[in-house]
Structure formats: structure tokens, C-alpha cells
Specification:
- This protein has a five-stranded parallel beta sheet with strand order 6-3-2-12-13, with helices on both faces. A five-stranded antiparallel beta sheet has the order 10-9-8-7-11.
- The protein has helices at residues 38-45, 66-86, 103-106, 143-154, 161-171, 178-190, 203-218, 220-234, 236-241, 281-290, 302-309, 319-325, 329-335, 353-362, 366-369, 375-383, 387-414, 419-447, 449-462, 476-482, 485-502, and strands at residues 4-7, 51-57, 90-96, 108-112, 118-122, 196-199, 249-256, 259-266, 269-272, 278-279, 295-297, 312-317, 341-344, 348-351.
- Helices cover 50% and strands 14% of the residues.
- Strand 8 (259-266) and strand 9 (269-272) form a beta hairpin.
- It is built from 21 helices and 14 strands.
- The two termini are 46 Å apart.
């Protein structure tokens, strides 16, 4: 029995995106990362009618959680589906969000050890008072070597182990930045699938995006008002998105003395939220012209910049992204940019043979393992209780209910005030049977430690730490066990899912 992929669809409908005008400005060619897929992708983007499907992610240690790869392979899968339907080149592009400054999120990773236990590791933390340096400027440091060693030490010997570790070691070097390591590893991994990676922090990308950044600052007050109205329209979606609107903050970030900082409108100009540095509009125009790398979009402006730079017809995102992307239509309209359609990335679980063996042994379904309540274990233990004990407990409970029911009726006729004490006595008697059953189950658990441990390890494999597998585990240990064929099969599974979901779908008007 081999591994398999089980989709867990996101709660967002899939519809065909709308075709759009093609074209990629020549200056942006430099911003695409070197890889075996680069030249072929750029040649296809230069063909008449060529468009793109995009996804992207902020940098993560060892390529981050599995959903990063799910997003990238979703882009290539949907691009292939659209190319067949539209008979025009559709190129998958992965946007490397190197401007991100969340080192705590980018510096940790997790995997399953040889014994099935969950291992977590991270780089040394950044000092609390350190500037929020963007990941494209943040070195990994010597700590990455220790994390690589820990990963290697916890993986058992296998045919593909050294190949997977060498892939990471080529990119995750102490002198590399967090973003450069991530970008290099992802670009190499995705090249066989035609995915080309776009470095959004490259000077060519920054220079091309600067006019959009300046327009966003020019219209900051109007955009803020638009977003506040959009928030009222979205209702519950707005409340769960985590997006703050109506506070005077622009959608633009600036690298200042406190690192990457949000610009907030103030007295006709702007001030950075943390560093309290003041900038006039002319100051920011000069920065956009001479130092465009210091400026970057926030999460609501980023997809607008992407759509202005790339011929993208769709951006594939996860549930949190889709919630905040629902805010963005007014931003596109205000800045005069054609919007790409947000669509859900593929979401799913990699089920390994060792998990399937547990499912088969105990006659349980994957959905039961994905339930963190532990109901499977409780049912397993209860099933081992002797039938005569279960019959006896059921008989005692029935007798208690019947006997106390009769007594309560008599008590009500004699003196209604006796009913409540009678009910209390009944509950106490029933609690006694529950306590007996609990003790029996506890002793059975001790006798069934092996079986319960098997179920626990299987659950950790698909729901590590009680969280979705794709949000916790990283790819490299799976590559070490199964080799490149795993990514091939995952791409095929994702493409089949998109093809099936979009079969017969029409382009929205």
C-alpha cells in the first residue's frame, strides 16, 4: 500500500477566472529567479495571448509548512487546466513575498521523527527590541546548521534521505538570508513542474511597483473610507479576517529605523506607526524614485501590485487569504488595476501507508482520526469491556431510572418539596455507575497502551499537535521517505481535483 492524497476542500466555490490582456514588461524578466524552468517560462510569457496563474507565500524555514507546496502546485495544476480550456499559454508563477518581516513565523519548522513523534525546531529568536528587518535582508545565521543537523539525525536511513537533506543544505546556509534560502529551495523544487518564481524584492520589481505604491499613498484617505464601507458590507467575513480598517493607516509599508513599518496619514504627510518618523509626500516620492526597495505593500495592496506587474488571471490562496482578499475590490477600482480572481488552493492530507494500516486494523475512517476529541480511542476501549459488564451497567441504570421515577411520583403526591432531593439522589446513583465504568475503562487503557499508541501516532501523522497536517509539517522528511515521485503524484492529484471541480464551469460575466 502506498501513500495517498485526500482532499479537504476549502469552503469557497471554484469558478473559471476571466481571460485578460497578456503581456510582461521586459524589465521584469530580471526579477524571475534562476531555475531550469525560468527561460522556458519567460519564452511562454512572451507568446501572444499568454497569461499567468499565481500564488505565493512569505519565506519559511525548510520551505515552510506543506501548504506552501500545495499553493505552488495548485498554480501549475490550474494553469494546465486553463491552458487546455482556453488554448493559450498559461504560466504558473510563484510570488516570493520576501518583504515579510515576521521572523517568528519564518524561523520555525516541524516534522515527524522515525518513531512517529512530532519534532519542532526553530532558529534562535530575534531580540524583542530588534528592528523588524524584512526576510530578504535577514540572515539565517549559524543556528540553521543545528536545525539541519537535528532534522538529519531524526530521519531513518532511506533511499532518498541524503538527496532531500542535500537539497535543503544547498540553500539553507548560515550566510543566506531567510528569503533567499526559501526562494532558492522552492525554485529548484518547482522547476520540473514549470513553475517560475518571482522575487518581489528584486530592484526591477520594486521599481515597477513604485507607481502603484505612490498612487496608494495619494489615495490613502479615499481607500481607507472605501475599505470601511467594504467592511460593513462583508459583515462576518470582515470580523474574522483580522484586517484593520478605518484607522487612517495606508496600505504601504516603509523600511525605517524600526525596520518594516506601517505608514499612517498625519498632518498632510505620513508617520511610521512604530518608529514615529515623519515623511512628506515629496519625501516618499523621492524614496520611490531613488530607494524603491524601502517601500512595500501590505497584505491588501500586495495582490494589486501583483496584478499590475503580471498578466495574472487568478491568485490561489488559503482560507485566511481569501477572507482578506474579499476586501480588495475597492482598492483595485481606486487604483485602476484589473483584478485577478481569488480562488482556493488545493487543501488536503497526505496519508502514509503506516496510517492506512492503523485505519484498516481498527476499522476506522480517516475523518475519525482528524477529529481531535479522541472519540476513536474511547470507542476502542469501550469495545473491550466484557459484554456482561456492559449489560450489568445498563441494567443498573435502567433500574435506577425506573425505581427513582416511581419514587419521584410518590414523593410528588406526598410532598412536592421532596421531588428535588429525590432527583439529586437519582443523579448521585447514576454518577456511581459512571464512576464504575470510568474505572473499568482506565484499567483497560493501561492494558491497551500499544493499540492506543498506534492510534495516537496515526493521528499525529494527519493532525499533528491537533492542527491540520498542511499547516504544521514540512515537505523534506516526506521527500526523504518517498523521493520526487511524491511531488509528481501530488501535482497529478491536485490537477485532477481542479479539472473535476471546473468541469463544465463557465467564465463568470
Amino acid at each position: 500500500m502506498s501513500f495517498r492524497f485526500v482532499p479537504t476542500p476549502l469552503d469557497t466555490p471554484l469558478v473559471l477566472p476571466e481571460p485578460r490582456d497578456s503581456g510582461l514588461r521586459p524589465s521584469l524578466r530580471e526579477a524571475f529567479l534562476p531555475s531550469p524552468a525560468r527561460e522556458a517560462a519567460l519564452a511562454r510569457l512572451a507568446e501572444p495571448g499568454a497569461v499567468a496563474v499565481t500564488s505565493g507565500q512569505q519565506p519559511g524555514l525548510f520551505t515552510g509548512p506543506l501548504y506552501t507546496v500545495h499553493k505552488a502546485l495548485s498554480a501549475t495544476a490550474l494553469a494546465r487546466v486553463l491552458e487546455r480550456q482556453w488554448s493559450r499559454p498559461v504560466v504558473p508563477i510563484f510570488w516570493i513575498a520576501g518583504d515579510d518581516h515576521d521572523f517568528a513565523e519564518a524561523s520555525h519548522t516541524a516534522w515527524l521523527a522515525a518513531d512517529g513523534s512530532l519534532v519542532t525546531a526553530s532558529l534562535p529568536p530575534r531580540p524583542p527590541d530588534a528592528p523588524l528587518t524584512p526576510m530578504y535582508r535577514q540572515p539565517l545565521g549559524a543556528g540553521v546548521t543545528a536545525v539541519l543537523d537535528a532534522l538529519g539525525a531524526s530521519l531513518p536511513p532511506s533511499e532518498f534521505r541524503d538527496e532531500a537533506l542535500d537539497w535543503l543544505a544547498r540553500h539553507y546556509r548560515p550566510e543566506a538570508t531567510v528569503a533567499a534560502a526559501f526562494a532558492g529551495a522552492i525554485a529548484e523544487l518547482l522547476a520540473p513542474y514549470g513553475v517560475v518564481c518571482f522575487d518581489s524584492t528584486h530592484p526591477a520589481a520594486k521599481a515597477a511597483g513604485a507607481p502603484i505604491i505612490l498612487r496608494a499613498l495619494e489615495h490613502a484617505a479615499a481607500i481607507d473610507a472605501d475599505l470601511e464601507r467594504q467592511s460593513e458590507t462583508l459583515g462576518e467575513t470582515a470580523r474574522t479576517s483580522g484586517v484593520m480598517v478605518g484607522d487612517g493607516a495606508a496600505l504601504v509599508m516603509l523600511e525605517g529605523k524600526q525596520g518594516r513599518d506601517r505608514l499612517v496619514a498625519s498632518d498632510g504627510g505620513f508617520v511610521t506607526r512604530r518608529g514615529k518618523e515623519r515623511f512628506s509626500r515629496d519625501d516618499l516620492a523621492r524614496i520611490a524614485e531613488r530607494e524603491p526597495t524601502r517601500l512595500s505593500p501590505n497584505v491588501l495592496l500586495r495582490p494589486v501590485v501583483e496584478a499590475a506587474l503580471l498578466p495574472t488571471v487568478s491568485y490561489l490562496g488559503g482560507p485566511a487569504e481569501l477572507r482578506y482578499l474579499a476586501f480588495t475590490p475597492p482598492v483595485y477600482r481606486r487604483l485602476g488595476v484589473e483584478r485577478q480572481r481569488p480562488l482556493p488552493r488545493w487543501s488536503g492530507v497526505l496519508v502514509e501507508p503506516r496510517v492506512d494500516r492503523v485505519l484498516e486494523k481498527f476499522g476506522i475512517e480517516l475523518a475519525e482520526l482528524l477529529d481531535p476529541s479522541g472519540s476513536v480511542e474511547a470507542r476502542l476501549v469501550r469495545s473491550q469491556l466484557p459484554s456482561e459488564a456492559l449489560d450489568a451497567l445498563a441494567a443498573i441504570r435502567a433500574a435506577v431510572e425506573e425505581g427513582y421515577g416511581t419514587l419521584e411520583k410518590s414523593a410528588s403526591d406526598i410532598d412536592p418539596t421532596l421531588v428535588r432531593p429525590m432527583q439529586g439522589a437519582r443523579h448521585q446513583a447514576l454518577a456511581g455507575t459512571q464512576e464504575i465504568e470510568k474505572k473499568l475503562v482506565q484499567h483497560l487503557k493501561r492494558r491497551q497502551e500499544t493499540e492506543l499508541g498506534q492510534i495516537s501516532r496515526a493521528r499525529t501523522a494527519v493532525l499533528p499537535g491537533g492542527k491540520p497536517q498542511e499547516r504544521v509539517l514540512t515537505l523534506a522528511p516526506f521527500l526523504a521517505r518517498y523521493g520526487p515521485a511524491l511531488v509528481d503524484d501530488l501535482r497529478d492529484a491536485i490537477e485532477g481535483w481542479y479539472a473535476g471541480a471546473l468541469e463544465g464551469a463557465s467564465t463568470p460575466s
